[in-house]
Every structure is written in structure tokens, then in C-alpha cells.
Design a protein that fits this description.
The protein is mainly β. It is built from no helices and 10 strands. The protein has a domain of 84 residues: Jelly Rolls (Sandwich), CATH 2.60.120.10. Strands 1, 2, 3, 4, 5, 6, 7, 8, 9 and 10 form a 10-stranded antiparallel sheet that branches.
């Protein structure tokens, strides 16, 4: 395995729909993963207008970096309007959701830690 990885165009990486119950219009591209020998994953996620990842929690930490579009996150009991250049860190086992409230794609880079338990508990 090489000691590095280069992706010349992250928009061309294979995308897959977010596979949790209640997710609509959310697509993930895995940029860095365990398969690369990493202890964390880096993903590009696109939430289509009106799309959402429902309220959920998991044992891994998650960082969201907003590149484009506007959205709304619920983290515990707080509602956060998100826009480009924001970074939101969510601790493990914290309930959170994300929704695109704009008319264009909401584009994010998300970074997650790998934990023994990678299951997702949907709360709605």
C-alpha cells in the first residue's frame, strides 16, 4: 500500500446515499477511510435542497466543515443555522441532525473517528 493518497477531483469519487432510516437526499463520498490505513474517515457529503439526515447519535465524534449552501443543524436541544466557512464539532453520543434549507446543494466535509461501535441510533 502506498504511503499516501491523491484524489485529483473529489467530486468524481463514487457517491452513495446515506443509508440510515429517514435520510433523504444525502450523499456521501468516502475520501479517506480505514481502507487507506487511517484511524479516521474524511468524507464529502452533499445534502440536496430539502434533504436531511434525521436526528441520530453514534459513538464516534463528527466534525462538519461547511463548503457551500445553507442548512440547519440540531445538536442536542440547540438549533444552529449553518453556512459556508463554519465548522461544527459534535462529541460522541450527542444527538444531531442536518437539513438543507436552501435552494442549492449543501456541501460539507465531514470527519469521523473510528470506534469499536460504528452503529447509528436514529431518534426520530
Amino acid at each position: 500500500m502506498p504511503s499516501y493518497k491523491v484524489i485529483n477531483d473529489i467530486t468524481k469519487v463514487r457517491e452513495e446515499p446515506l443509508s440510515i432510516r429517514g435520510a433523504v437526499g444525502v450523499y456521501t463520498q468516502w475520501l479517506v477511510s480505514k481502507d487507506d490505513g487511517s484511524k479516521y474517515a474524511v468524507r464529502r457529503q452533499v445534502v440536496k435542497p430539502g434533504g436531511k439526515a434525521p436526528l441520530h447519535r453514534h459513538a464516534y465524534a463528527e466534525t462538519f466543515i461547511v463548503l457551500r449552501g445553507v442548512g440547519r443543524m440540531t445538536v442536542d436541544n440547540d438549533v444552529i443555522d449553518i453556512k459556508p466557512d463554519m465548522c461544527i464539532f459534535v462529541r460522541p453520543n450527542t444527538s444531531h441532525s442536518i437539513m438543507n434549507i436552501g435552494n442549492e446543494d449543501l456541501e460539507l466535509i465531514t470527519i469521523i473517528s473510528y470506534e469499536d461501535d460504528m452503529s447509528i441510533d436514529v431518534l426520530e
